Amino acid sequence: QLEHQKVYKVFKLKGTMNKPQEIFLLHASEDILVYGVHSIIFDIISKKMLSKYGTYNAIGKLFGFKAEKPVKNLWAWRKGKSGIPLSIVRIVMKSDKYLLNKLNCFELMFGERRSKHKLQIPTLSEEIAYIAALISGDGNIQPYYTRIVDEFKENLRCVEIMLKRQFQLPTNLRRVGKRKWLLEINSKIVSEYFNKVFEIPIGTKNNDNLNVPSLINNSSLEIKLAYLRGWMDAESSVNRFFKKKHKWYPRIEFKVKNKKICDWITKELELLDIKVSQFVDKEESYRFTILRKESIGKYLQYVRFLYPTKLNKINELIKLQAEILLSR
Asked: What is the reported pTM?
């Protein structure tokens, strides 16, 4: 217990496993740095690894340090002033099969070699699931930045608040066209987080490389609904469906090129007893509509919109339709 006293001062003890952090530890780029793990890492190096490899020089060479001064490089980050690369952490994991579980009981700090920012990996929550779906629909990931676009600034303002709350990093919201706004967060760690944890491809998205992530499929109903909500804010529209010349109904319409995503969303909606009409249009896009009054009511109760423009529009149409019916 005394040997790990420093660890408990650095870490914020959670006591439960953080699945996104576990995925990140195992699959993120090897050059990403982990902070605050020095005490527990050196405890394993000085006991289990030293017993196995015989000398610190041999351990240093195993870590890939320069042959001339492996010991000096090994002890350079012992005091915790700099982070330990994930490549080193993973080598140490091979000598202690319980290290991953030990580390994942704490909220670790991660950083990049050329950045002063350090951040925690967000746990799985409704908010982060919603953001992941938005990026999957109306966003893009590149190695060092993540972007989301929308026609309305007020919609992205809401997302900007969430991103800052989740990652504690600065964001950049700017106009990039007459009817287009862009929200950007510059961080390799954020890009890798959404790529590794939520399986969003870096670069071009297509039907083959974009799926509902396994983390979402194995989550609670609340998390699934938040993910679904993000897709609806990204790819749906609210309009009027005219049955006759002067008779119309509020309609929610969803349209994507990805059949797997469309099928998953319709299945989740139908489990909530929300009736949808699904079809393929001439552009080979997969679409569905929510039209019935009861289904729209259930949608607003269980799923709803977070984008202010869409929420306001559906409420205005419902109110207007009610006033027309009362006036007859």
From this structure: 0.89
